[in-house]
Each structure stands twice: as C-alpha cells, then as structure tokens.
Amino acid sequence: MARFEKHVLICENHRDPSDKRGCCAAKGSAQILDKFKGRMKELGLTYKMRANKSGCLDACEHGAVVLVYPEQVWYGNVKAEDVEEIIQSHLINNKPVERLKIKKKKFL
Amino acid sequence: MARFEKHVLICENHRDPSDKRGCCAAKGSAQILDKFKGRMKELGLTYKMRANKSGCLDACEHGAVVLVYPEQVWYGNVKAEDVEEIIQSHLINNKPVERLKIKKKKFL
To answer: Is A17 a residue whose pLDDT tops 70?
Structure first.
C-alpha cells in the first residue's frame, strides 16, 4: 500500500506583482495550505494523507492551484473556503469536486 | 490523459542544524532539484513531465528524499549523481531504480 492515500500539493510560487503571469502566492496559497494542514490534522487524516506546498506547477493563470495525487486532479481558482469541500468530498469520500476542476483539456 | 506523465517532488525542507531530525536541504536537495530541472529540459521532457521542490515529506531520516508520481515511488539518500539514473530508468523507461528506493514497508 502506498504511504499516502492522498497527497495534496498547493502551489506557493511567488512572483513580483509586475509580472503579468501572476502567481499562486498572490492568490492566497499560504492560507489554503494552512487550512488543509489544520483541518487534515483535526480530522485525523494525517497518518495516511498529506498536504505540502510546492514550487510552481505551471498553471499560473488558474491560481491558486491545488493538485491531488494519486489521481492527478487539478483544481483552479481555489479559495480558502473551498478547502473543506475538497477534504470532505475528494480526500475522505473519493469524489473529486467537479466545480473546482480546471476545465482545459490538458488538465483533465 | 494526465497533464504530467511523471511528476518528481524533491523535498527541500530546511531545519536548524541543531535539530536531530536533520533535513533534506542539508543533504543537497537544492542541487538535486537543479539537476532534475536542467536535465529534463535538455532531454526535452518538460512538455510532459515536471520536477518541483516540495515542503517536508516527513521522511527526514531518509533524506535527501525524492518522490515520483503517479506511482508514488519513494527514493531515499539520493545524491545529485543519482539523478541521471532516475531520469533515464524511471522517467524515460518507466523502470524505478530499485537500489534507491526506501525499503521500509510503509514507503513501498
């Protein structure tokens, strides 16, 4: 059995505000990471799941970006208030949150 | 098709040298990350694969740690000189490098 049943990566890349690409750090990724870590601990999930910050996931226009393995589900425009739904639906009940998925073909 | 055929995470967590747990940053993770990124670019792999730094993967005693998705293969005690083998064998030819795998059951 794999060590982590679910592994959540939250892009925390930071760019200068003058950079047109934007970045996930400017779109609340630190709060999203904190909320994942806090709630997963409260819910007793951390023995089999983990949330980590990551370097740039190259999906800047969709930030803040959250990526869930092993399924490689890509979520875009994620806000801190979406975290509970991702945890309850996807991590616990194995049902990815369709409304938050990035819709572009290459991300499906 | 998933966006990334292979996704390599390199733990870059840093702890104070007085911390007995050690950390991957003190075991060369920055050089490992650089080498993955550089070689994957040179080899034309970056359109379908990616290497990223990550926060602490909670395998500190095995550092430097490299984790490859979607298979969730855990490599431990990785050195910069091991990167080419991981790329050629695992990323390109889909054969994980057995000698570098962390052997503990929970990582298999």
So the answer is: yes
